Amino acid sequence: HEDPTMALLHPIAAQTTRYRVGGMDCASCAAKIEGAARGLAGVEEVRVSIASQLMSLTTNDAASTAAVERAVTDLGYRLDRLDVPEPGGDGALPPISHPVTGAPCGPSSC
């Protein structure tokens, strides 16, 4: 039997996941998505950018991530996960490599 106060001493690692959001047309759409996500248990941070059509979601468990995905798609938006969440991750995407040479892509290489 585990002492419930121990959970306070050992917090669950947060995970950050990024998505491309389809069907988002204006700032009101972004605010609606953020509001729906923020209202769910386990959500630590959500940022939605209308300019880049991206959502960055930080949650404290996989169930919370799934709940946000359902809430956003229930609003009529499409989500495409851009990366696999990593515990304690910052949501940054891995480096991209050139499809032919395998060299890292950068401003002058592609």
Polypeptide structure, described:
Strands 1, 2, 3, 4 and 5 form a five-stranded antiparallel sheet that branches. This protein has 110 residues and is α+β, with helices and mostly antiparallel strands. It is 26% helix and 25% strand.
Keywords:
110 residues; alpha+beta; disordered C terminus; five-stranded antiparallel sheet; 3 helices; 25% strand
How helical, in percent, are the residues? 25-40%
Structural class: alpha+beta
Unreliable runs? 91-96, 105-110
Terminal CA distance: 56 Å
Quaternary structure annotation:
single chain
Topology (SSEs and partners):
Blueprint: H1 6-9, E1 15-22, H2 27-38, E2 43-49, E3 54-59, H3 62-74, E4 78-81, E5 86-87
Write a concise synopsis of the structure shown.
The protein is of the alpha+beta class.
